[in-house]
Specification:
The protein is mainly beta. It folds into two domains: about 70 residues, Thrombin, subunit H, CATH 2.40.10; about 110 residues, Thrombin, subunit H. It is about 10% helix and about 45% strand. It has a six-stranded antiparallel beta barrel. It has a six-stranded antiparallel barrel with strand order 8-9-10-13-12-11. A hairpin with a 3-residue loop joins β4 and β5.
Length: about 200
């Protein structure tokens, strides 16, 4: 779920400015410092631009850090703040990789509201055609972009914020809005879709 709580910083720590909204996570991984020392770590707060990790190993400010997080992969950046739990590092990534990371975080934040299983490897789909139309219950139609898709729901990038619980239609699939996030809304379909029903996006 998206978290608006401040980072757990000590009085001496200074948090970096945030250009992305963060979500609370609990993702295990390993951390490698510039000295090539490796330590187990756990990411506890994350955005497409930075990540806060709990770790015994402590880098210096501006030190290059590489983290390998389960289900996320390799992240590289620089340490920008130290706190009682560990530290915060920036994430160096292309725009495309940030979009992919944002989609992963969207599902992490909303999988409980969408009723998704913890392991979505079998029902998560990668849409080739990301452009679609979202129809609201008043009949109005609005262009949107699918950032992630499964047989049971979707996350779409859209400027509107239809109210939670509103009945909507994504293409020909009926559902309801279950969550707002920074870029748009998460939708739960009224019924689990077949892959054939999602052909227009695949």
């Amino acid at each position: 779920m998206y978290s608006f709580q401040p980072a757990r910083t000590s009085p001496q720590a200074v948090s970096p400015p945030r250009s992305f909204q963060r979500v609370s996570v609990n993702i295990a991984g390993r951390l490698m410092l510039a000295s090539h020392e490796e330590f187990p770590c756990t990411a506890y707060e994350m955005s497409p631009g930075d990540v806060s990790v709990s770790c015994v190993g402590r880098p210096r400010i501006n030190e290059r850090v590489v983290a390998y997080l389960d289900q996320i992969g390799r992240l590289e950046g620089k340490a920008v703040a130290l706190d009682d739990a560990g530290f915060t590092m920036t994430i160096n990534a292309t725009e495309r990789k940030r979009e992919k990371l944002a989609a992963q975080l969207i599902w992490t934040a909303n999988k409980h509201e969408l009723g998704l299983p913890e392991d979505r490897r079998h029902d998560r789909l990668t849409p080739r055609n990301t452009l679609s139309q979202l129809t609201l219950d008043d009949g109005s139609t609005h262009s949107c972009k699918i950032v992630d898709l499964s047989l049971s729901g979707a996350a779409v990038d859209i400027d509107l914020r239809p109210s939670i619980g509103m009945a909507v239609r994504l293409g020909n699939m009926r559902g309801r809005v279950v969550r707002h996030f920074l870029e748009g809304v998460a939708i739960e379909f009224n019924a689990v879709q077949s892959r054939e029903a999602l052909t227009e996006f695949l």
